[in-house]
Amino acid sequence: MRAVIQRVSEARVVIGDAARGQIGRGLLVLVAVEDADTEADLEWLSGKIARLRIFNDAAGVMNLSVAEIGGEVLVVSQFTLFASTRKGNRPSYVRSAKPEVAIPLYEKFVARLAQDLGRPVQTGEFGARMTVSLVNDGPVTLIMDSKQKE
Questions:
Q1: Is omega for the bond preceding 139 within 30 degrees of 0, making it cis?
Q2: Roughly what angle, to the nearest 10 degrees, separates helices 99-117 and 39-51?
Q3: Catalytic residue set
Q4: Is residue 124 within 8 Å of residue 12, measured between CB atoms?
Q5: CA-based Rg of the chain, rounded to a whole angstrom?
Q6: 20-42: per-residue pLDDT in tens?
Q7: 130 closest CA partner among 73, 74, 49
Q8: Is 126 exposed, middle or buried (0-12, 13-18, 19+ CB in 10 A)?
Q9: Which of 78, 106, 114, 115 lies most in the core, judged by the most C-beta atoms within 10 Å?
Q10: How far apart are CA 141 and CA 23, in angstroms?
Q11: What is the C-alpha to C-alpha distance for residues 109 and 85, in angstroms, rounded to an integer?
Q12: Per the confidence metrics, is the pTM higher than 0.85?
């Protein structure tokens, strides 16, 4: 699994004319599933995101997790995170898992992240055409991949 994690002061996902998920201070997580992913990948990624210390403490040092600041999380599926631009100018998405594999893992990831945080997680809608807006705080943006574990 691959994720782009952004520390935000607010974020929102809209489908059509309706807001699907909306948060204040917290994390916007764009997540993609590849065919090789398993429950072990989602467990690792969820745990890392829940424990990431990227919010400032009283001394102004990034030392607190989203749970510790009482922040919120918005998770949006984004298969394009596995785009390959190696050949030509049109990205290939062959590494992205097909919906029959991706949807169950995405849903388990969302449930696991809510469990790890001890609070509900807002989401977009898998496979829907979504408009995502955010105010990046910092800016702080991290990329994590369960296969690289950097």
A1: yes
A2: 40
A3: 78-80
A4: no
A5: 15
A6: 999 999 999 999 999 999 999 99
A7: 74
A8: middle
A9: 106
A10: 17
A11: 27
A12: yes
Token readout for 69 is 């600041």
- Token pair in block for residue 103: 């949807």
**Could you give the C-alpha distances from 125 to 7, 35, 77, 110, 136, in angstroms and in order?**
21, 20, 7, 12, 21
Count the neighbouring beta carbons within 10 Å of the beta carbon of residue 95: 16
Q: Of 60, 84, 68, 59, give the one whose Cα is nearest residue 27.
A: 68
Contact 93, 83 (CB under 8 A): yes
- Asked if 133 and 16 count as a contact pair (C-beta separation under 8 A), the reply is no
Contacts of 8 (CB under 8 A, 6+ apart): 23, 25, 26, 27, 28, 74, 134, 135, 136, 137
E strand spans, the chain = 2-15, 18-23, 26-32, 55-56, 62-64, 72-77, 122-123, 131-145
Question: Residue 147 class from Cβ within 10 Å (0-12 exposed, 13-18 middle, 19+ buried)?
Answer: exposed
Q: 25 in helix, strand or coil?
A: coil
Structure tokens at 92: 């290939």
Place of tokens 């997580």: 29
